[in-house]
Amino acid sequence: MSKKLVAFFSASGTTKKVAQMIAEEAKADLFEIEPKIPYTKADLDWMNKKSRSSVEMSDKKYRPEIMEKEIDMNSYDEIFLGFPIWWYVAPTIINTFLETYDFSGKKIVLFATSGGSGFGNTVKELQISAPDAVITEGSLLNRGTKQEINEWVKSL
After folding, report:
1. What pLDDT band is residue 93 in, cutting at 50, 70 and 90?
2. Which of 40, 93, 95, 144 could potentially form a cystine with 64 if both were Cys, beta carbons 3.0 to 4.6 Å apart?
3. Which DSSP state fits 89?
4. Which residues contact 41 (CB under 8 A, 6 or more apart)?
5. Max alpha carbon distance in the chain (Å)?
6. Count of Cβ atoms closer than 10 Å to residue 55 Cβ
């Protein structure tokens, strides 16, 4: 039986709730990707071109720092990786996470929450940060109901 991990970044709590339900349904460990400097409401104002999130997302090479946590990625075969969609892709903090640990030979299934957009170029933009992993577009879980998540996890 493969060991699973649900890793997630949640700026407002929405993705965290979904990640917790996935971990429960998939019988997986849970790992929160936390920024060294937490995001404020003002940082997340996508209407403000000078907000932290807008500045980060306008530079694809930018890598926000994350809290360093000990985790043995070698013990996991499959990683569910969750995040909110920012500017039609994953936030660059997800690239930071993928570049911090070794995901060689791992299967990474993406899930996201979004106010309206899809995955866009997310797989392509994340693959460069984990070139030896198999990254697949999973599902947008906007409603995040227990039934929706249960059905999705069973379908994998």
Report:
1. very high
2. 93
3. B
4. none
5. 47
6. 13
